[in-house]
Structures are given as C-alpha cells and as structure tokens.
Input
Amino acid sequence: MAKVLAALIPEPGAAVEVRELPEPELEPDSALLEVELSEVCGTDVYLQEGRLTGVPYPLIPGHVSVGRLGKIRGRLPDISGRPFKEGERVTFLDVHRTCNACWYCLVAGATTRCPQRKVYGITYGLSDGLAGGWAQKLYLRPGTRCISLEGVNSERFMAGGCALPTALHAVERAEVAIGDTALVLGSGPVGLSAVIFSLMRGALRVLCIGAPPHRLEVAMRLGAAATLDVETTDESARREWVLAQTEGRGADVTIEATGAPAAVVEAMRYTRDAGCVLIVGQYTDHGPATFNPHLDLNRKHLDVRGCWGSDFSHFYRGVQLMRDPTRSEPWSHLRLARYDLSRANEALADVASGRAIKALITPQA
Amino acid sequence: MAKVLAALIPEPGAAVEVRELPEPELEPDSALLEVELSEVCGTDVYLQEGRLTGVPYPLIPGHVSVGRLGKIRGRLPDISGRPFKEGERVTFLDVHRTCNACWYCLVAGATTRCPQRKVYGITYGLSDGLAGGWAQKLYLRPGTRCISLEGVNSERFMAGGCALPTALHAVERAEVAIGDTALVLGSGPVGLSAVIFSLMRGALRVLCIGAPPHRLEVAMRLGAAATLDVETTDESARREWVLAQTEGRGADVTIEATGAPAAVVEAMRYTRDAGCVLIVGQYTDHGPATFNPHLDLNRKHLDVRGCWGSDFSHFYRGVQLMRDPTRSEPWSHLRLARYDLSRANEALADVASGRAIKALITPQA
Amino acid sequence: MAKVLAALIPEPGAAVEVRELPEPELEPDSALLEVELSEVCGTDVYLQEGRLTGVPYPLIPGHVSVGRLGKIRGRLPDISGRPFKEGERVTFLDVHRTCNACWYCLVAGATTRCPQRKVYGITYGLSDGLAGGWAQKLYLRPGTRCISLEGVNSERFMAGGCALPTALHAVERAEVAIGDTALVLGSGPVGLSAVIFSLMRGALRVLCIGAPPHRLEVAMRLGAAATLDVETTDESARREWVLAQTEGRGADVTIEATGAPAAVVEAMRYTRDAGCVLIVGQYTDHGPATFNPHLDLNRKHLDVRGCWGSDFSHFYRGVQLMRDPTRSEPWSHLRLARYDLSRANEALADVASGRAIKALITPQA
Amino acid sequence: MAKVLAALIPEPGAAVEVRELPEPELEPDSALLEVELSEVCGTDVYLQEGRLTGVPYPLIPGHVSVGRLGKIRGRLPDISGRPFKEGERVTFLDVHRTCNACWYCLVAGATTRCPQRKVYGITYGLSDGLAGGWAQKLYLRPGTRCISLEGVNSERFMAGGCALPTALHAVERAEVAIGDTALVLGSGPVGLSAVIFSLMRGALRVLCIGAPPHRLEVAMRLGAAATLDVETTDESARREWVLAQTEGRGADVTIEATGAPAAVVEAMRYTRDAGCVLIVGQYTDHGPATFNPHLDLNRKHLDVRGCWGSDFSHFYRGVQLMRDPTRSEPWSHLRLARYDLSRANEALADVASGRAIKALITPQA
Output
C-alpha cells in the first residue's frame, strides 16, 4: 500500500511531527489531491497552541490548498456540472458538509453558522483521514467543492489563501462604497486583503494601522493612502491620526482584522457617526473588551457587524479574480515563504512572529 | 404684555420651578402653540439630574407636545404645502434646524447626526425663549415642522409620545421580519412601543424582559407572547428563559431599550447567530460594559446597530398610524398620568420610579 | 399489490381522469403520504389547458398538500433533525431537488432559479411516480422537506396553500414598510394573501383592485381599506381612484397578482415616484405588454421586481404563522370548496371562473 | 452696467443665438460665476429640439459648469461651513431648490423627485436670469451648493460632467458587486462613465454594446473586457454575444444608458436570472417599448430599476474622486471638443451625431 507523508499536530501545545500514513481507499465520488501548496495561517498557530475549542487532535493542519487531482472515483463535477479529470490543478472550499437541511441553512440563510459544518485542517482531524493540506496527499471526501485553477497562478492565489474569501466577505458585508475612506486595523493576511478589496469596491482612501513596519510598507504598495504603526502609538494618538486623515469625522468604514479584543472598541472610536464597523479579527477567544455603549455605539448610530467564515460564493469569486492579471496583481506584492513538511514548526514560528506575511507548506518538496 | 406660566429646571439637580414669563413677539413665519399636553420622559429625569452634556440651563423641558395654534405670523405650511390656520390642533417635530447643508445631512444621509440639530425642551434652553412644552405657550420658531392632529386622539398619540418615532426607527432599523421572534429588553415607553411595532412588522412572537410587573402586564396586553421580570432573575436565568422560548437558538432580533450598559451585552447573548441587536436604550452615559468580542460578536456573526434619534419620516408616519383606530389601539393600553405645571416634580419622581408608564404635563389645567 | 386512486391530466387540453395506480416500493429515506387535502390553483388550470412549457404529461396535479405519513423507510428528519414518525400529519415543500451545487444555488444565491429544481404536481409527471397530491397516496422522494402540522388547522393552512409562500415572498421582496399604502392588483388566492401579508408587515392602508365582487368583499374582511372592481372600470378610472386614495401620489408599493400582462404596466402607473412594483402574477405566458420607459419607469425612479417561486424559508415561516390563532385568523375568511377525486374537472372549472376562491381535492373522500 | 455674452435657445427647434445681457445685481447670499467651461450634453440636444416638457424658453443651456467666483455677496459656505472667497475655482450642483420640506424630501427620502426641484440650464430659463453655463457669467442663486475645485483638473472633471453623478448613482443603485460581469448598453458619456464606475465597484468584466466604433475603442481603453457595435448587429446576435461572454447566463447587472426604448427590453433579455437591470438612458420620451412580462421579468426574477437624477452626495463624491490622480485617470481618455459661444450650434450637432464624446463651451474664449 502506498505511503503518504504528512505533518501533524499530535496534541495541543505539542510540536508538529512528520508521519508516514497509509494512502486511503476511495469511496464513491471522492478523489485524492496531490498537494502542491498549503497555507500556514494564524489559525494554524492557534491550533498548535491549543487555543481553539472543538479541535479533534491529532490533526493535519492546512485548510486552503492547491494541488493536482490524482485519482478520482465516480463523479466529481465543477459548479457547471463538468466532471473534473485526473491531473487537473484545483483548489477546493475547505468548508465541507454545510448541510442545506437545518434551520440556519434553510430558514436563516446563515450557512456559515450551520452546525454540521466541518473544515478541512481545523475540525476534521486525523481520525477523519488525510483531511489537511500539510500532507503529500489529501483525501477529498464526497461533496467537497473543487474549482479548477486553469489560468490561475497558484502562488498568487495562495498569497491570498484563506484570507481571500474571508476579506472579500468582510469588505462586502461592510458595504464599502465608492468614495469612502476605509480604515483597516491589522496588517496580516486578512488585513492586507481587506486593503485590496476596499480599494476594489471603490474606496477613495484606505488607511491601515498595523505592524510590523515591513507589512505596512506592503499595505502602501497595495494602494493604502497612509499607514500607522500600532506598536509605537497609543489609542489616543491613533485616534488623532485617523481624525486628521478624515476631516475630523473618522473613517466611513472600519475593518478590524487584528485578533486583539481592544481593537474592536478602537474600531468603534475611529469610525464616523453612522458609519460601519466590521469585526473579522476575533476568530479566537483572546478575552474581553470594555466599551461605553452610549458614547461608542448608540450616540454614534454605528453599525457593528461580526463576520464569521465565508461561503462558496466568496471562495469562487476569489478564484475568478485570480484569473485576471489586473485584478490579481496586488496579491503579487505579498511575499511568500516556503517550507517543506519537515520545516512546519519553523513556518508556524515565522507566522506567529509576523516575520512571514504568508507561509506555505510544499509537501512534495 | 401677556404672561405665560412655565415650569423650568433652573440648574442641574435643582427642583423644577414654575415661573411667569413674557409672551414673545412673533418673528416672520413663526407661531405660538397653546400647549395642551406635553410629555415627561426618561430624558427629562436625566435633564433634572444633570446627566446630559450640552444642556443650556435653565430650560423648560417638554419635547413632544400637543396643542392648538394660537397666533401664526407669516407662512406655516404642512408637508403638502397647505398653510395651517389659527386654532388647529397640531404636534410638531421636536428636532429643529437639521441643516440640510452639512456633510452628515447631504453626503452621509445621517440627518440625526447633523451637528446643527437642536431639540425643543432639551438643547434649546430658556435663553432661546419658550422652547419647551411644560408651559402654557410654546414658541414655534421658523422652520419648525408641524403636523395636523385632525382625526387623532391626543391622549393616544401622547401615550406614544417621543417613544413613538424612537421605537419605529429602532424596529425598522432592526429589520424585524415576518415570522421572527423579537426580544425586547426594557418595558418603559420605548420598550412597550417596540413590542407594538415588532408585532406590526410581522414578528410571530415578541418576548419582553423588564420591570416592574405592572409594565410586563401591559406588554402582555399589547400582544407579547411571554415576559420575564429582570429584577428577580440573573443573566444566566434570563438566557435560559430566552433559549427555552426559541428552540435553543436565541431571538432573531433583540431590541435593547433599558438604559443599563450591561443590557447591551446581554442583548448579544440572547440573540441567535446571524441575528440583529438594536441598541436604543443608551441615550445617556451610564458607564461601561464588558463583553467578549469572539464569543459575543464575531463568532455569532451578529449585527449590532446603534440607533440615535429619529427624523421627520418616523414622526410623520407615527402620527398617521394614530389616525387609524386599529393601528393605534395598542397605545390605548398605556395608562396616562396627568400633572399640572405645579406638580412637575411629582411627575418626574413617578417616571423615575417607573410608577407611571407615561406622565403628561397639562399646562392649561 | 395495493392500489392507489389518482386523478391525472392525460395530455394538454384533455379532461382529468381518475385511474388506479400501483402503490410504489419505497427506496431508502423515502415515505408515502396519505393525502388528506390537495389544492387546485390557477397553475393547475393552466396545466390542464396546456399553457405551461416543460410539463411531462401525463401528470397528477396537486402541489401543496396535507396528509398523514403512511410508511416511512429510513431517515426522514424535520429541520431540527428530529425523525418523523408514521402517522404524523405533515405538509411538504413542493419544490424538490434544488441542487445546492450549481452557480445559481451557490454563487448567485438564487435558489428558485436552480435549473435542477423540480416541483411535485407540475414538473414531476406520472413517469416520476405518485408525484402529485390529487391521489390517495403521494410518494415523498428522498430529500423532500416535510414540516409537521401539529397544532395547525389543516383547512386554514390550505386556505393559504401555495399562495402562502408565494405571497410572503412577494410582500417581503416588495419591502412593504410600516405606514405604507400598498396596492394589490388581483383578488385571487395570491392577491388575497398579499393583502394579509401587506398588513402583517405594517401597511397602514391596503387597496385592492380585482374581481368578482365576492372576492373584493373578502379583501375588505381581510382588512383592505378600499377595493375597486377591475371589470367595471377602465385604466384611467382605476388610476384616478388610486390617486384619490393616496393624496395624488400613487401607492408606495404595488403588488401585481393578476395574470394579465397589461396589469404590469398599470402597476407602474398606479405607483408613486420612487416606489416599488412587485410582479408575481405572470407565472404563465399570456403575451406581451407595452409601456413607456421614460414616463412609466425611468422618470418615476421606480423599482420593478419580478418574483419567481419561493424557497423553504417562505414555506416554513408560512406554516409557523398558521400555528398562531391570531396570525392565521385572516385565512379563515377564505371560503374553501371541496371536491373528491371524481369531481376534479368541476374544481378546475370553478377555479377558472373565479367562483371558488380556494378549491381543495379530498382524495380520501 | 456690465454686459454678459450668453448663448441661448430662443424657442423649441430654433438655432442657438448669442446675445448680450445685463449683469445682474446680487441679492444677499448669492454670487456671480465667471464660467470657464460648460458642457454640451444629450439633454441640450433635446432642449434645442424641443423634446422636453416644462422648459421655460428662451433659456441659456449648460448645467454642469466650472468657473471662478467673481463677486460674492453675503454668505456662500462650502459643506464644512467654510466661506468661499472671490477668485476660487468651483463647480456647483446644477440641481437647485430641492425643498427639504415636502413629502418626497422628508418622508420618502426621494429627493430627486422633489416637485420644487429646479435645474440650472434646463428648468431655469432666461426669465430666471443668467441661469445656464453657456454664458460668460452665471448667477448663483442663494442656496446653490458650490464645491471647491482646488486640486482638481477642470478638464478631467468636465470629461465626466453631468454623466459623473448620473453614472455613479446608476452603478450604486445597480449594486454592482465584486466579481460581477456588468453589461453597459450605450457608449455615450453616461455609458462610458458607467463602464468606469462598474470597474471601480469591483466588476470583474465589463461589456459594452454601443456605437460608433471610436467610442467603443474608448470603452476598451477604460477597461472594458469586450465591446459590440449596436449598429451592425441585431438583437438576436447581441443576445448570443452576451451569452457567449457569460457562460450562457447573461450579465449579472445591465446598465441601460442609450435613449432607445427598445434597449430597456434588450437589457432584461441580456441579464441573467435574478440579476439587476438599471435604466438610466430614458431621460426623454422616445416612445413605447413592448416586452413579455412572463418571459422577460417575472420568470427571470429580475430587478428592474429606474434611476432619475442625482443628489449632492453623488456630485460631491464625484468631485472628490477627481482630486485623486489614480481614480480620475480613466476620464482622461474621454476626448474633449471645445467650442466658443459662437459655435454652440456646431457643438450641438457634434453631440447629436456622436462625433464628439464630450463637447464643452468655453464662454471666455
């Protein structure tokens, strides 16, 4: 039986280990993906640290991935009904099993809150099989939604990675409008993609507060009008800076993509009255925040929107944008760092420290 | 020169006093209203206690009022252009001078955040003239928007009072939908009107958490499906109660109308994932609240909307509803307590204690 | 083998015939419904007349139906995951096989335009089995979404029938607002349910133009403010009537539910500038209509929305409303006419002539 | 008394004449603009031909204009309250006197349908004074909203001209989304600006059907993905072309900016199911159009939106975009043709024939 090398997190807090695993039998309408690139994102750092609940350790991390279809058994159609062929380069929506049968899916239309929802590399563990991208092969279960990457530069797509649909969802839900001043808090992958998408929706000026400086330089190359280092300023100085950039009013829209609870409150304070605050940086529990409901919310007539996950629509459109040289160009400015399976711990460390903007695992290397 | 009796708050924390004031000369396009009824609302309690900033003491309180047009000088047209006549019974939008010339009015379309905005009985003080309803006569400045009360029962309209446009704005902004379960936190005038409006927009079930018991009984008479006393329960018991009423999910929409900062956070916790929380109870600074951005907001994919003030559209439609016996019927269940000018302090005490649901000043009595 | 009586349309234009059909074997996760009531709607008249394309004759009509679950094989869960039991009274969404895999389902979010979509009694024919409600038993294929009718009055629910989700979808998409004047064109089942739902969303006045007079009387009992007979007036008189009811402006929202192409243009002309026109009466091709794009649309800044089908959300909420005595009360005013299988042709004739507001087939009679 | 040269249309169908007019006295809070550039748009052609109703001939055409403030009498503040100074270069919103007091302004929020609204150069005639831009001086009445053009290239701004706010309004109301395929019908100034704004809101591909070829070449330079000549194709060929560009579905959003009634129906047919059609090309009555309400609208679940005029928000944001070299760059591709006052008839002929994309009157030349 063929063997597959995979990097896995044995248990919360433990270092990543490379193991040899058996290649699975394919059930009907499933396939095997030969993984070329799989990302390392902030969530993977939290997975290793054991900060997420409901994770079935041991698990193979790696949610958004790119590869070639090795074997296919049965039907594996694309969204137009065309069957994929073995050898095609594809990516797939990491969210699996959104049920289309529960109250959240069918009545509320809130599919990202479907209780049946599973995510490759996060809530599928090793006991579910080769269900993460940090492996030479990944098992695509029946119902997994693949998208052809024909005509797409894999590196550029992975520079977006899981931040691509996440930030697209956030910027759309924030309803950035033509002529707006958008403020992005955070300069990690989601923040930088939010800068790109805010401009793509017609923001006239995009401001970015983040760190470290090399990421802020990237934000400028992406088209940000001005940036500020969060590590060398306090809230009061940051607020003054935003007001100075916005004729004293605050940003029309603020997108929080930081991970810091206090940034949620700062986002409210940096936004103009009757503006919109979009919270997309609180995917992990980092503790509480304190605000003044009168001053920070009610009197400002603010709209503060949480944004959880993304659905196929965001992912699909993200891939389509990547087919277009002009639309995808900004992502070429996000430097990629590559790591083979044996260097996965190093990749996690570089992501945790902010040294790498986007780290990729290359399982075939 | 004719004299006018008025009740006024001399300074923050001081008791209301009745004074005799001169009747003003009318400038062009102004009028004098002979006040019949003027309300006493929670804001008036805060005005007397000195809890609002930017109030020009001394001032005559009383924002939403009803009366007859005494003298009119020049043009005073209604919204269709018809000139009002002396002797007509009218009410008027207490918000004055929304400028229609600033960035908030013309670009953001956020007229309730217009910096030029003034409110009779709140931000117009005695130095601005007879600018509050707790007086025999009120001076309607040029540009004040009056609405005829022909065919409207004044008592029923005043049972809504300023809560009528406030709650209409809140329930519309919350986008209550047909079939929803709406939860209203607070059973004061705004909360009770929010119960009515939630049902009017098609909520299948409206829950109300408030106090004291006699107000919850009113909520039931207005059509609430169930109520809970906030004073005899803790947050955990309240949350269990809401979940038990909502198949374990939480309310589709929660409208916070309490004045308590902690209620803002509870509102998030009692609302289902991907639901909407509307904050309309934080018109005064009652201090901070602490929440968990991950658990209470981002992961829940919530939409938390502050709601400040109301505009002519809310006020106008509120009055139109009052012309209709069926639509206005619920407000007949809100018991009115009447006080002449000399009993204004008693009225404030009864509102502060929750004894009166809706207190009215009757300046001609 | 057990036998099942069913009424079917052999071919376009042919009369309905009753036939004896074999009871099918159940495949896994399917069930057999013992039909108690199945409706006869305008679409059934068109099916018999052969006016719809893509209908696989012969077919058993009857889309929205009520009955008891006879046999169940395998899993048949409700929306909360609870398995149905044999003997339970249920209805089911007549739309089947919305694929949740195509571009319309997953990217556009337009599930009612999914090309895979099939409808019991309309696009499922006899070759698909017992797939219509005009039969003693109906075969519930795997994936059919059932809803318990426990606590629901079947007659009242069927008084709504397929018009219930259709009109709910229409009124929500039309965004009827509190205080609006809504105009409903048509007084058939969809029109009458649109009257009910417009009031349920807070319309202050609902006008209805339709025929014959006995249906307009029902509209008044449902709460319409005024009605007009379309058969004794011309367009000019109708327009004058609407303007007279709306201070010369036209309706805020008009819902067209007639089937007549010219009514679409009239709907535009009876609606105020910047209002909304909702087209839900053109489910069959009745030919062209002519309008003036400058006068009727562009200069009026109108929003004209087609509305096709409904999804599980509309159907589910429609059933929930029926659990509530107050919310469902209006439908008790829609008189039901019952016909056993042998009188199906009579039922069609009574629906075609407008004699019956809502005709029901009672297959067990 | 000083004299002012102006070009005016004496009566419907008559050629433009240059006349010498007296310079007016300034009433309080008014100003005199020394016009540098004033546009010639399609509406001006219709004005000369006498195709618009309610035009008070004789009139001086020219609505969107640029110039220097000559004299100012009294207060003339910008949107932030800063008073303009004599000598400043400005433009102004050609829509004047939106009343902020009527039902359309205050209840419907539909300010572009305010009955009091007047437009310089269209509904203000010579009897209203120097109220059009085809004159050396234009009288800015009290309440006219000016915007500073400091930092704005006048030519680039005028390349947008009145199409700038019109197309911005249209594209926003059409809700073009990131990743969409937008189809623009018409390649005149509004169509070309709609191409630009559709891309600015994130459309992945913009298609344009128009004429003549030199305008389609401009559309390509603006970023259109493909264009088609309307004059060498029939509806069937055009439909095939659109379907071939959109995987057989039709455009997500179609913006009609042609002036031809039939284009409104074509727009519906070229749009995908559940898509949006925006009608902005029917500002003049060009007669009727015939469509099939079942096939073209209801079954397609389309949303067809008329779009009339624009408000200060669109105009203001249009000017702000022009301050930005990147955002305004596309308009530099619209070639300008200049005409002094004596050549106004030639300018009209060039606009009517489509020879000039954007013709400008230079009154000081």
